[in-house]
Structure formats: structure tokens, C-alpha cells
Specification:
It comes from Thiolapillus brandeum. This is Ferredoxin-type protein NapH. One of its GO terms (cellular component) is plasma membrane. By secondary structure, this protein is mostly helical. It has 15 helices and six strands. It has a three-stranded antiparallel sheet. Helix 4 packs across helix 10, helix 5 packs parallel to helix 9 and helix 8 runs parallel beside helix 11.
């Protein structure tokens, strides 16, 4: 249970804790002490990485994730325009094959704003909570959220511009996301209006895809321009209340990214591609607290780290089904 609390503390913006060397398990201390004696293996890894950087291979898991994300959002669009009524509504609130679905953060905002609990909202919230607990919480962000996809494409441009010195990567305090979550909760209670929903890029994009573009897309474009020129993935990292909500849901999820210390030679390729690199603090030399560690609740399960790791130290697993 202490691992779950620590995972939530980091999700809320706390810095990952480092255990004193003397308090690490004996097998972990021995591994840290002797792993780098295998010079031949390390040389092979460096050669492999040099080749990989010279000729980058396709990220197969990333491509599959994009296909899933596009398919889910396309299902909303086709269901509306073809009037097949399989999936009605948008990501904030919908009905799939007759089952009510409600985005957890949106449902919370509605209940706080109107001080009234509608039974369909309870059913939809419960359904979505169980679904995303089973699927990993912030998996919603990287596998379903349309803003995540366009922000990921904007990030690719941002990285090229940073290399040329034409863009900056300003870092903000991660606790800002928690404070914003609280601010929007208070605004919903005080104003009786779901303030966050009017600026949520997730909701704006989902509705624009289904019902057509509106002026709110100007706000989304401004966010993307800010991320391209000033701060890599700023909205997802430092602001999005939806990401925080789903992170809490996924804190005890059976679906996790899993780290194996014996396979790791601390090349750091995983942290370079990670949206939330603080969750991979454990891969830094000397920071792993056990031979095997589940990555924390802020992980979006995008699986880019799994593709990037040259030694198979990072995998994904579903507890009870795989190891």
C-alpha cells in the first residue's frame, strides 16, 4: 500500500523519493555494485544504440496506439453521421450500445456545479471508472484523447525546432496540475457552471470532430503553438485535470509498465521519449528500490519506453495474466 501512496504523491507533483543505499535490499545493492563488470555486453549495447540512432526503426507500438486512438474517435464520427446509434455523444458523455458512459472529470464537474446527482451520470461514471481501472487509468490519455494525438505530432515538430535553436523547452512545477484541478473544482461549486469543460482541449476536439469545427478550436491552436515554441507537452504535463483524475483511477490498476533492474544498463533511452519522465526515475543508476518495479500512476502506458529500451528492461504486463 505504501507503494500506491508514493505513486499518488508523485502523481500530485511530489519529487520521487530516493532510498539510502544502506536501506536497499541486499540483492539490489549487489547488482548495482557488479553490473558494470560486463564490459563486453555494454559495448554491444552502445554499438546497437549508435546504429539505432543512425537508422531509427519504426516505433511499432506507437503506430498501433495511434491506430486505436483514431479508430475510437472515428467511431464517434461515423456513428453520428451515419446515424447507426452504436456510439452516441462525445468523449465527455456518451452511450455505447445502450450503456451510459461519462468522462470522470466531466461528471465530477457536472455534479459539483449543479449539486444534483443524476442516476444516468452515476451509471456512466461507474462504468467508465471500472473500464479505465482495468485498462490502466491514464491509458485514456495516450490511447483515446484526441488532444494527446495532435500534441504528440506538435511535440515532434517542437523537438526539431529545439535542435535548431528555434524553440525553448520551459519546465514548470508539476504541482501546478494539482492546483488547477482544485481551482476548477472550486469554480464549479461557486459558479454553478462547468468552467473547465469550456476550455478542455479534449472536449473541444472531440465535439469538433463529431459536430464540426467551432471558434473554440482557436484556443486549442494557441495551446499547440505554445507547446511547439515554448514548452514540450505543457498541457498534458502541467495543466490537464483529466490526466490527474485518470492517474488516480489507475494507481492500483492491474495493467502496468514493468521495470526489470537486472536487464537495465541505464542508457536512458526510455526517459528521452517519455511524456512524464519522473515516473522513470527508478531507471536511473542506483535509484531502483527492488529488482522489479511497477511504473507509477502518472504513466500513460503509451509504451514508447518499451519500444525505446534496447535491453528489454521495460515491458508491459497485466497482473494475474502475464509476468
Amino acid at each position: 500500500m505504501s507503494t500506491v501512496f508514493e505513486s499518488i504523491r508523485v502523481l500530485l507533483g511530489g519529487a520521487p523519493k530516493r532510498i539510502a543505499k544502506k536501506d536497499l535490499p541486499e540483492e539490489v545493492r549487489e547488482l548495482h555494485a557488479h553490473k558494470f563488470a560486463d564490459k563486453e555486453r555494454i559495448e554491444k549495447i552502445h554499438i546497437e544504440l549508435a546504429e539505432k540512432h543512425a537508422n531509427p526503426p519504426p516505433e511499432r507500438l506507437r503506430r498501433r496506439r495511434w491506430l486505436v486512438l483514431i479508430a475510437v474517435n472515428l467511431l464517434f464520427v461515423l456513428s453520428y453521421h451515419l446515424d447507426i446509434q452504436l456510439l452516441e455523444g462525445a468523449l465527455t458523455a456518451s452511450r455505447f450500445a445502450g450503456f451510459h458512459m461519462a468522462d470522470l472529470n466531466s461528471a465530477l464537474q457536472v455534479m459539483l456545479a449543479f449539486k444534483h446527482v443524476v442516476i444516468n451520470l452515476v451509471i456512466g461514471t461507474t462504468t467508465v471508472f471500472i473500464l479505465w481501472w482495468l485498462l490502466g487509468g491514464r491509458t485514456f490519455c495516450s490511447w483515446v484523447c484526441p488532444y494527446h494525438l495532435v500534441a504528440e505530432w506538435a511535440e515532434m515538430l517542437h523537438l526539431k525546432l529545439v535542435d535548431k535553436g528555434w524553440a525553448k523547452d520551459i519546465q514548470f512545477d508539476r504541482r501546478s496540475r494539482t492546483w488547477l484541478w482544485l481551482v476548477f473544482v472550486i469554480l464549479a461549486i461557486v459558479t454553478g457552471y462547468t468552467v473547465y469543460e469550456s476550455i478542455s482541449p479534449t472536449g473541444i476536439l472531440s465535439r469538433a470532430l463529431i459536430y464540426g469545427p467551432g471558434v473554440a478550436l482557436i484556443w486549442v491552436a494557441m495551446l499547440l503553438l505554445f507547446e511547439i515554441f515554448f514548452s514540450r507537452r505543457a498541457w498534458c504535463r502541467y495543466a490537464c485535470p483529466i490526466g490527474l483524475t485518470y492517474g488516480i483511477v489507475g494507481a492500483t490498476s492491474p495493467f502496468t509498465v514493468h521495470y526489470k533492474l537486472p536487464n537495465c544498463f541505464h542508457e536512458g533511452e526510455c526517459r528521452k521519449v517519455c511524456l512524464v519522465p519522473h515516473v522513470l526515475d527508478t531507471v536511473l543508476k542506483g535509484k531502483a528500490k527492488a529488482l522489479e518495479v511497477d511504473i507509477g500512476a502518472d504513466c500513460t502506458r503509451c509504451l514508447r519506453c518499451v519500444d525505446a529500451c534496447p535491453t528489454g528492461a521495460l515491458t508491459f504486463k497485466y497482473k494475474g495474466l502475464s509476468s
